[in-house]
Amino acid sequence: MQIQDNPQYLAAGVSRREAWSWAMFDFANSGYTTVVITAIFNAYFVAVVAGNAEWATFAWTAALAVSYALIILTAPALGAYADAYAAKKRLLFLSAVGCVLFTGVLYFVGPGDLWLAVVLIILTNFFFGCGENLIAAFLPELAQSKALGKVSGWGWSLGYIGGLVSLGLSLAYVTWAQGHGEPAEHFVPVTMLITAGFFALSSIPTFLFLKERAVPQSHLAGRTVVSEAFLRLGDTFHRVRDYRDLVRFLVCIVFYQAGIQTVITLAAIYAQQVMSFNTSDTMFLVLVVNITASVGAFAFGSIQDRIGHIPTIALTLVGWIVMILLAWMAESRAMFWLAANVAGLCLGASQSAGRALVGYFSPDARRAEFFGLWGLAVKLSSILGPVTYGLVSWISRGDHRLAMLITGVYFVIGLLILLNIDIKRGRQTALQT
What we know:
The protein is mainly α. The chain is built from 17 helices and no strands.
């Protein structure tokens, strides 16, 4: 994918190389979500680590919920600190190191190592989520306001390609290992090392070329770093009524992202438990879906800037509802493959469009802080959706179809909230702040 060095897209002083280096972080960290959360380790956790116990899916979703709760507690204050001290890039580096390190340690998780797996998933996902918020906060500095959708789409598109490459490397190793008769407890841990190494190497351009353009803001006398960050955050919540449309969109995100995060974290489990996919089948499915997700993110980035943020997101939510119905009804692999690729197109588009709209509604002086609130909404949804699915599957004694159908309700609620957002008013509020 080539990023055009065009002034109608990039902000003044932003080079093509810098925009590419920003997008490379999406390329680097997507391997983590693709391999660990979506395609390989989640199914390995349920089938091998937890021994296919009835509570295994719920245990997986609960571990992720704890990590997301930690992000919810820290992300807004972290964003406020990053704004006050112009520290986005430094904190981004620390988040990358944490995610890479603990992903590598997943290599040591084997059958029965439930608590080790739970602790490491909490840590890896916490550091990943912090980095996801921080890299997003650079977006309004790099793109012109009229091209936020397009530039966000570049990042998401390159990110799915990164997930594709990381998963492809893992799939090549798994295919070789299975050909030599090795069991999952031997080859899955090695894919964790592959994923960690890929993240580390691919993120190097980000830290070489991405600039920290923010300048430190005036600080409050007699306050510690932490207390000042929370005071700034409190000020944001105090004035939140002034950002009426941003707040509505954040609530909208909580609901529709609950559905998206459920699909991301449980797709492989659904494929294996309902459609009888094996590890290789699931990895190949996710690999293909990453291609359609990349196409969706890239294509809808341009569409968003043409038809508007709200219509684009609404279109993707309708697609998500269709996808849920297809997956729920699927009896054949062909129908499930169709559902999965509809999900891929909608995934890339909705993730990119949502990030761009938050940037559109964000005042210049509070970008990291507002993207911290975006991260809070996404992480809250990451608790709500997967835990709902896990509880339904546990209470219904493994009825994954019912759990998938209930997931669709979140997309319907999100669509209804979205239709009550005034895009012009929200943008005007950001410009006047």
